[in-house]
C-alpha cells in the first residue's frame, strides 16, 4: 500500500486489546526501512466485529496525537475531550475505527516546537501566528497515510467525526468516500475559547466552538455517552 508520493505504509502488528471493558482490534502501521527498522506512524482501533459496509459505513475519527490534551488532560485545546467522545461513539456504534496519528503533535510540528509555540501564545500570539513565528505553516498535517490505513482495514466509506474540512478533502482526494460528517465541537473552556475561535474564524473549521450544534446532539446511535 502506498500514498500518492510512494511512501510505503505497512501493517506492523495487530492484536485484540480491551479498551476499558470493550474488546477492540489494535493495529500499528508504519514504514519499514531498507535495514529492516520499523518506524511507527499510526495506530488504529477498530470495533472487534465490524459490520459490513453494505449497511451504514463505519464511524471514523482521525485524531492527531496530543500529549498535553490526550495524556495530561490540558484544557488549552479540545483534543482530549474529542478523543474521549469519539472513542465512546465508536464503541457504542459497534461499527467504527479510530485512526490515531502518532507523529502529528502540534499540527505536525512536534512536541518541543508546540511548547515553544505555547510560550509565544503566552506572550500574545494566537496559534497561527505562533507557528508562523517559528517558521512553520499554520497547518502542517498530511492525512494521506490515514487513508492508506483505512484501505488496509478494508474501509473505503466512512462517517467522519470532524469539524475540519481539510480532513474531508484529503480523504476524498485519496479515494475514501466521506458519506457523512459528524460534528465534534463544543468543548469550550476559559483556557481554549480563543483557540477554538481561531479554528473557526481563521482556519475554516466548522463550529469547533459548538455554538450551533453541540456534541450532545449527535445522531441517534452515535451518542458519546457510555465511554469505556
Radius of gyration based on Cα positions: 17 Å
User: Tell me about the biggest sheet?
Assistant: 7 strands, mixed
Low-confidence stretches: 1-5, 215-228
* SS-based class: alpha/beta
What does this structure look like?
By secondary structure, the chain is an alpha/beta fold. It is built from eight helices and seven strands. It has a seven-stranded mixed sheet, sandwiched between helices. The two termini are 32 Å apart.
Indicate the topology.
Elements: E1 10-19, E2 22-32, E3 38-47, E4 59-64, H1 67-71, H2 79-93, E5 96-101, H3 105-108, H4 111-122, H5 127-133, H6 144-152, E6 157-161, H7 165-173, E7 177-182, H8 193-203
Parallel strand pairs: 4-5, 4-6, 6-7
Antiparallel strand pairs: 1-2, 2-3, 3-5
